[in-house]
Amino acid sequence: MYFLGIDIGSLSCDAVLIDEQKRIVSSSVILTGAKNIEAIARVKKNVLSASGLMEKDIRSIISTGYGRARVKERDGAVTEITCHAKGIKQVIPETRILIDIGGQDSKAICLDVEGNVVDFAMNDKCAAGTGRFLEAMARALEVDIDQLGDLDSGATSNLVLSSMCTVFAESEVVSLIAGGTEQKEIAKGLHRAIAARTHSLVKRVSKSIDGLVVSMSGGVARNKGVVRAVAESMNIKKVNTPENPDIIGALGAAIIALERSA
Amino acid sequence: MTKKIGFTCAYTPVPLIEAAGFSPFRVFPESKAPDQAGHLLHDNLCPHVKKVLDRALADDLPDLEGMIFINSCDAMRRLSDAWHAARPQDEILLLDLPSGISSLSIDFLSKEYDRLAKTLFEWNHKPFSLEKIKEKIDNWNHLAAMAKKIEKTMSKEYFPGYASRLQHIINTAATDSIDTAAAAAKDHLHPIGPAQKGRIPVFIFGNLLFDPNVYNLFEEWNLHVAASDFCTSSRFISPIDVKKDETIFRSLAGSFLSQTPCARTMETTVPGSIAQKIVQQAKETNAKGVIGFTLKFCDPYLARIPMIRKALQEASLPFLMLEGDCTMGSLGQQQTRIEAFTEMLGV
Amino acid sequence: MMYDYFDNTVTGITQKLDQDPGGINARKKYVLELSKLGKKLYSKDETIAWCGVTAPFDLLSAMGVTSCFVEFVGAMLASTQTAGYFLEEAEDSGFATDSCAYHRAVMGAVMKNAMPEPDFIIGTSSPCTAGLAIVENFAHQYKKDFFILNIPQNDSKDAINFLAGQIEEMTRFVSDHTKKPLSKQKLGIALDCFNQSTRLLKDIYDLAKTTPSPVDNNLLKDFGTVISLLMGTRQGVEVCQAFKDELTHRIKTFQHHGSNEKIRLMWIQNRIQYPFPINEMLDDLGAKIVVDELNNVTWEPMDPDHPFESIAKRMISIPFSMSTATRIKTMQDLAMEYGIHGAINPCHWGCRQGTGARGLISKGLKDINVPVLNLEIDCVDSRNLAKGQIETRIEAFIEMLS
């Protein structure tokens, strides 16, 4: 028996297939594009072909994300907040604060010791500090998005970007480059700016994080610079990141599919 | 066809409007009128005020004989200022509203309501009649009593569509007539069909939530609205306690100032009492959680939400705070949050 | 920390004034008296009341209460560039950034124990809803007794009687806390000082109307709002006298002729509180703020035989308390009296009562051919200040007026 979780977001569509022991059998991350129904079909096809399984092997499907109602074959739809909590509990079980920064939105989720959501805060009105923001900054710095994380290595200044609006931040970066500021300082500055914003979001769900394990999921968690900056901003030793931070939501959805089928 | 008097605030006594021979028309902030209010006032005002003004500027209103404004907050004050510019042809009256209850404030507000009553009768060229006012207050109280019964039924168990129909009745009282609303309330006293299990009971509060379809959406999202505290629901349909040893206007003033307040009205003896009131209301309905729906830029709620949040935390009541324009559009955007909250409460 | 700040300021200014005993130094004397007030607020020896902006400070002073409006502290935190720290504290506690930073900053100061604990709190419904809400928070936080003065929107007989009745009730509330009744004699002295100060204010404002004006862009900054804290006292009279003397002196010695006054401006509502080179900018551009909207006497002399009624009329007369139409009429009168070319309206972020009327005010002044520059700015929170954008707007406006 296998269980499928599909996370259909505005930027990416992710799917995770698990077995009865909650082990990931296969996963897929693709761009949603303009037609999310096609993306859903494609991501499902990807996980099936990667695992060598067939449609009939899937016992239950749970969908999540902004487009969760578009997954026609779903057995249920659960919000991404609950799914992310479920997913992170599976991979980093001691997590009490989960920060998820995706392509266009960010969330902070406070979990109890059992991994249940006790509070959450979302920012989905502004893309500042999200994947889109970092893409624009990478373009301005003329580097690949994958290189941005380590670009701040060796930075020593206290530079923090003052604009968080993607458009104005890009202008600010261009001005800094023209003024001779080194790439590493600019990268550090923008990582700090994202971290400060993220920290504010966390404070909305937990005024103090003393003694709490903090983890990060979502595509932005691949940026080690941001992860380090978030830890510094919160004055903690470490922010944990799972091996595949993009698929935590879909993993959580798959686990919920399993649990509901029991 | 009965002439209409427009109003925007729950502190407006509808019985006075009807006693003077008018029918009430609460101007809800619901319209496809373009955004123009920000130009006349400022963009960063509450969406309620802005959309009401947009309706005025786009002439998206029925024929009104006049408008009554209450000085309940700065935004409402500015709305009344702008109305003079937007619709100079309208008769307009602005009443002052004290911030809390005291002997002096009851006395003053009673004079304001007296002034309102006399003005309304003048606008309609009718002789002033205390008898008419008493009659309409009796009708109002009859409606309010039925509304309270419905609210009580709602709080105990979940009946599909019940909350939505109650909102429809309240809106009828605000935009049609007390009698029509009362007739609808009478038909609605007992729910159609049996109670259902499985929905999460919540207590909701805030500024306005006037569209009955909103309650249907909540039910789709697995919520049972056990009780609601809005100026378009229980705060609007409140009984008027007419006392024998005082004028009818004193009774009106006393009742309005002592009913469950919106955030702008305070108890000076217990500063911040709104927080405990919300906790108490939630507990009375055995709600598993509380959802606040407030208007963006609403200063009275902006200043009180921290203490409300703290009080709910201390009472171990999960709280979801949503800010928007209290329309269906804004709720659609908040669907994920509401569903996540329901999922959280359902564990 | 705050006590030391005020103490040091008092010491520093006193020394400077002692070095120049014949000098006029109006602004120094004004800042000295305000610093002394600040010192008293933080001294723990006084009966302290935190209040709304339009509270009757003269009456409270007569009753031996050291009082201040909370926004004064917000402004002070901004001027010392410490507001950001307190704003963050308030925001972390759930006070939304949509709210006015004057109030958010002081709330943060309360949470950081940087505000002197009051003995009681007196809120006023004017100028704004948010101001009243924040002092309720004070009362809730400090668990102190709370009194509200509801200020009606019009000056009808009922309205004045209502407010007068509340003011009288307030004196009983205060007496319950101070254990001292209101002294008619002290009240008489306070009202007499108030009337003297009022006459001097009228003189000051009349002198400011001269062309070219003897004021500079800083001299009467926020004066009308803040002087109310001192107006029932001897010190208030002395400060007002000093300003009158300063302006008279400038006119006599033709100092104002040296000023680069090509454009005469009205500043609407309150100034930008943190260091921002607006005065220097305007000086360079040949523009001068000859009048602030709130530097205006709108009340009749106080009648010691009917003190509560007088004070009530005064409180209602302040343009914030009334409709925007009344406020606009007042501004139009000021514009004509001072011969202004343009007005700057700092549309302070989060201000519903003042900034909420932005469009109506622009239209009202445009009707008498006075252009208005609406600056979307936060007058207390400089964290998101787009300095270049604001400077460009001011420059463009002055160029347009030139």
Explain the layout of strands and helices.
The complex is a heterotrimer of chains A (262), B (347) and C (402).
Chain A: E1 2-8, E2 12-18, E3 24-31, H1 36-51, E4 58-64, E5 76-77, H2 80-91, E6 95-101, E7 106-111, E8 117-123, H3 131-141, H4 166-178, H5 183-205, E9 213-217, H6 224-234, H7 248-261
Parallel strand pairs in A: 1-4, 4-5, 6-9
Antiparallel strand pairs in A: 1-2, 2-3, 6-7, 7-8
Chain B: E1 4-7, H1 14-19, E2 23-26, H2 37-40, H3 47-57, E3 64-71, H4 74-86, E4 91-96, H5 103-123, H6 130-156, H7 162-175, H8 178-188, E5 200-206, H9 212-220, E6 223-229, H10 248-258, H11 273-284, E7 289-295, H12 299-314, E8 319-324, H13 328-333, H14 335-346
Helix pairs in contact in B: 3-4, 5-10, 6-7, 6-8, 7-8, 7-9, 11-12
Chain C: H1 2-19, H2 26-41, E1 47-51, H3 57-62, E2 65-69, H4 70-79, H5 83-92, H6 101-111, E3 120-124, H7 129-142, E4 145-149, H8 157-178, H9 184-208, H10 223-226, H11 234-252, E5 263-267, H12 278-285, E6 287-292, H13 307-317, H14 324-338, E7 342-348, H15 358-366, E8 372-377, H16 387-401
Parallel strand pairs in C: 1-2, 1-3, 3-4, 5-6, 5-7, 7-8
Q: What is the total tally of β strands of chain C?
A: 8
Q: What is the tally of beta strands of chain A?
A: 9
| Radius of gyration computed on alpha carbons of chain C | 20 Å
Average pLDDT of chain C, rounded to a whole number, is 94
Question: How is this structure best described in words?
Answer:
- The complex is a heterotrimer of chains A (262), B (347) and C (402).
- Chain A has 262 residues and is α/β, with parallel strands linked by helices.
- Helices cover 38% and strands 21% of the residues of chain A.
- In chain A, the strands form 2 sheets. Chain A has a 5-stranded mixed β-sheet with strand order 3-2-1-4-5. Chain A has a 4-stranded mixed β-sheet with strand order 8-7-6-9.
- The N and C termini of chain A lie close together (11 Å).
- In chain B, strand 7 (289-295), helix 12 and strand 8 form a beta-alpha-beta unit.
- Chain B is globular.
- Chain C has a 4-stranded parallel β-sheet with strand order 2-1-3-4, sandwiched between helices.
- Chain C has 2 domains: 2-181, 3-Layer(aba) Sandwich (Rossmann fold), CATH 3.40.50; 185-401, Rossmann fold.
- In chain C, strand 1, helix 3 (57-62) and strand 2 form a beta-alpha-beta unit.
- Chains in contact: A-B, A-C, B-C.
- Chains B and C meet through helix 2, helix 4, helix 5 and helix 12 of B and helix 7, strand 4, helix 8 and helix 15 of C.
